[in-house]
C-alpha cells in the first residue's frame, strides 16, 4: 500500500511542540500496515521536524533556549531581513534540524522508542499553520 496525504498542523507559538498524535490522527490507514515506513516532509523553510523526548516538556523548552542562544535574530551580517528579525534565524534552524523524517511502522503503529515523539520546531514568532506531506508505504 502507498498513501500520500497532506496534513495541516495547527498554528503554534515559537518553540518546539509535540505533534505525533496530530500526524497519526491524519493517517488512519497506518492501522492497516504490518510493516512499513512513514515519511513526513514539512513544506516550509522556517520550521523543522525532529524526533526527540516525548514526556518532559522541559526538553523542548531547553532546545528552544539553546538554539535561540546559538542563532539569535539580531546578527548584523544577515541580509534576509525583509520578513522580520526571526526569519533568517528560522531558515538556519530549519536547515540544522531538517524538515523531514522517515520512521518505521510496525503492526499499525510508529515503531519509535518509549520516550520518542515527533516535534515541530516553530522557528518564527508567528509561523501560522504548517503543512506536512505524509507518505505511508507498507503491507
From TrEMBL:
SUPFAM superfamilies: YjbQ-like. InterPro entries: UPF0047_YjbQ-like, YjbQ-like_sf. Pfam families: YjbQ. It comes from the Bacteria. Belongs to the UPF0047 family. NCBIfam families: TIGR00149_YjbQ (TIGR00149). This is YjbQ family protein.
Amino acid at each position: 500500500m502507498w498513501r500520500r496525504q497532506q496534513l495541516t498542523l495547527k498554528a503554534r507559538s515559537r518553540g518546539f511542540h509535540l505533534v505525533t498524535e496530530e500526524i497519526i490522527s491524519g493517517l488512519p490507514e497506518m492501522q492497516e500496515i504490518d510493516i512499513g515506513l512513514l515519511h513526513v516532509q514539512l513544506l516550509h523553510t522556517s520550521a523543522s521536524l525532529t524526533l526527540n523526548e516525548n514526556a518532559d516538556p522541559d526538553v523542548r523548552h531547553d532546545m528552544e533556549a539553546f538554539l535561540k542562544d546559538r542563532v539569535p535574530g539580531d546578527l548584523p551580517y544577515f541580509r534576509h531581513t525583509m520578513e522580520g528579525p526571526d526569519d533568517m534565524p528560522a531558515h538556519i534552524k530549519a536547515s540544522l534540524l531538517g524538515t523531514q523524517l522517515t520512521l518505521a511502522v510496525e503492526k499499525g503503529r510508529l515503531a519509535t522508542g518509549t520516550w520518542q515523539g515527533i516535534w515541530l520546531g516553530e522557528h518564527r514568532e508567528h509561523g501560522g499553520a504548517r503543512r506536512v506531506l505524509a507518505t505511508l508505504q507498507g503491507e
